Amino acid sequence: MLKTLKNRFEQGYRTSRYPKEKIKLLSRYRGLPKINQNAPADLVLQCADACPQKAIDSKHKMIDMGLCVFCGTCERLSEGSFVSFSGNFELAVSMKEHLLTGGDLPSLSRHSRQNFKALFGRSLQLRQVSAAGCNACEADLNVLATPFFDLARFGINFVASPRHADAIVVTGPISRNMKTALLKTYEAVPSPKVVIAAGSCSLSGGPFCGSPEVSPGLDSLIPVDLFIPGCPPHPLTYLHALLTYFK
Amino acid sequence: MKTVFKQIANGKAIALDIIPHLAFDTFAQEVIAIVKQGGKVVHYFAYADDGKVKLMAVLRTDALLLAAGCDAPETYPAFSAQCEPFHLFEREMAEQFGIRPEGHPWLKMVRYHANSRGLSDVFGNDYSQDIPGNYDYYAVEGPEIHEVAVGPVHAGVIEPGHFRFNCIGERVLHLEIQLGYQHRGVEDLMCNADFKRLPVITEGIAGDTAIGNSLCMAQAFEGLADIRPDAGAGIIRTIALELERIANHLGDLGALSGDVAFLPAANYFGRMRGDFLNMSLLLCGNRFGKGLVRPGGVCFPMTDDDRKNLTERIKELKPQVEHVIDLLFSTLSVLSRFENCGTVSRINSEKLGLVGPAARACGISYDARRSFPTEHYRLLDIAENVELTGDVYARAKMRAHEVLQAISIIESLLKDPVQTECVVSGSFNPAPSSFVVTINEAWRGELSHCVLTDAAGKILRYKIKDPSFHNWNGLAMALRDTGISDFPLNNKSFNLSYCGFDL
Fold it and tell me: Which of residues 24-83 of A touch B (CB under 8 A)?
């Protein structure tokens, strides 16, 4: 008992005050890309060519955050003079075309569906479906339950049954062998329901795009309401998305 | 050991034709003889070369790595019938290449996909149908027997897989585990994709083992392209692999605490795990170490400020970690659930070929960091760590030992300045007609990649073996004669990879 108390004292109070207080992530974190529209064309082409995910639209000088895995190759190659990744972790969008960005994102809160806010603003129950996710997206969704993020204080919980859920959060590139299970879970969620695609795999197939065993993104199977980029998205990216879209 | 197999070195590429190409009968005799004398299977796979299908075996002892190949027969008497460790390898080969091991004790599909040669399916499946196809799960019959089927979609935030328990009352007679739901075709993708994509694909093989897999991939291409990363890169990679080990083990200790309803430790471990993930973020901008390792070195330096920052973080966390571990293992309600739960005997562990902490919990001391050291491990003295009881307690205790050991490794590596020439994009040109195998001790155990190139320097075969490939059957064995309510506890004590297995 004494040990339990001693440890409790040593651990202290750890819950973050986000969103009331801003959080600054460590400097190497790669969030929303900043793009220099004046970068020389040959440098842009060089970056587009080196991008492992073919995420750079060299003509319009834009990055597709659905494909991007935030590996930082373009930033290193251009030494920040074409692309530099900012510390801004607020990356989620509600329309797929908004994933293609020149460095700005439309306000997520204004693109939310108002009935979702009314229905789920005070209580939101999520059912997670990993459909061939590599366990990084899943792991950083899981940490939302740890003391620092403490998702439950916002009335948001992960539940075991789709019947109890308002929304499904899908991770992974949706393998052939998971497709039916995913669709069945989707059908089992009572309407009105929300579909959240989390991580570059569920947005585009991510690192596995082009494999005949995976899909080119969740929206090719079911309508998606919220797109959360990242490989994996930072837990704060998830938290921002959920709080902004539903609150 | 006297053998016709070729002795090879971890991470050192050799010409493919140096590896003995034996007659099938000699090959079969020899692999079985080596494994029966205590050798272990690292790889046993098929590949197509110039229209011909061939087999390759990579075996090891605690000190030697051996390789040999042969032409593949269409059918052959299963090695598994007399030598258990080949069990899953033969099933995988049947699925990937349609080669039938006759008399295999349990020939069922592994990941549920058609074979690459368009041959009639060994398992008689029609892959337009959903998994598990025409397979009837193992059934136990009797008046009081019941079955519990779980998954592929589980109750928590966790990867998919199907578990089927045959029970009598609360007692599990047998647990059948069917995976394959996560199959993304990674091995084929590694052969067909542009080289620039390979590091990113590798980091997604299993996100919780991003560093482990990246190291295996990078070392393979460094071997094949004769690139030598500098000593600083070796140190940073070693630190990254140990951080990955700590974060995962702490997370699992937290999950184990949660499963026995000891919530203080569950929360503390969960939070401290996050602090270690943040150290990976500090190193490379990603909590899982994605983007750090590329063939040729690492993409981010370790500045003196980084070193100081990491050292301070570890200084603050180390006593907290020690205290919570002490709290966990001195709480009687925890011990009463951990001890004698889900025991795997040493004999079974040997037959199943278990690796990593799960094997060390049964007294098998093998640790690739000592036997086949890579990176900075060559210069480290990694102490032997074993537990003997083979139960949940031993597996949990192993995790705790390894966390503390990893913390002291990192502390020692942070003492001196680290200099490295950072890699920008990490391009490479593998040597033609070559072979390399790389082994690293990832947090779940021996992780290995094996790469073969063709005459043009293209990738002919990319074989990946996650430690979970060995260990899933360990979980099934642990559940025998165990209460079904202890499944979550046992599952977390192993915490095996679904996607690393399914590829």
Answer: 25-26, 28-30, 50-53, 69-73, 76-77
Nearest-angstrom CA–CA distance, B457 and B462: 13
CB B178 within 8 Å of CB A167: no
ipTM: 0.94
Q: Which pTM value belongs to this model? A: 0.95
DSSP B419-442: -----SS----PPTTEEEEEEEEE
The CATH class, in words, for A114-246 is alpha beta
Q: Which residues contact A28 (CB under 8 A, 6 or more apart)?
A: B281, B282, B283, B284, B285, B300
Write out pLDDT tens, residues B234-246.
999 999 999 999 9
Tokens read off for B44: 């046993």
CA–CA min distance A60, chain B (Å): 23
Phi, psi of B440 (to 5 degrees): -135, 150
A136-176 tens-digit pLDDT: 999 999 999 888 899 999 999 999 999 999 999 999 999 99
In eight-state DSSP terms, residue A84 is E
CA pair distance A198, A196, nearest whole angstrom: 6
Domains of chain B: 1-127 (no CATH), 186-464 (1.10.645.10)
Please state the domain extents for chain A. Answer: 114-246
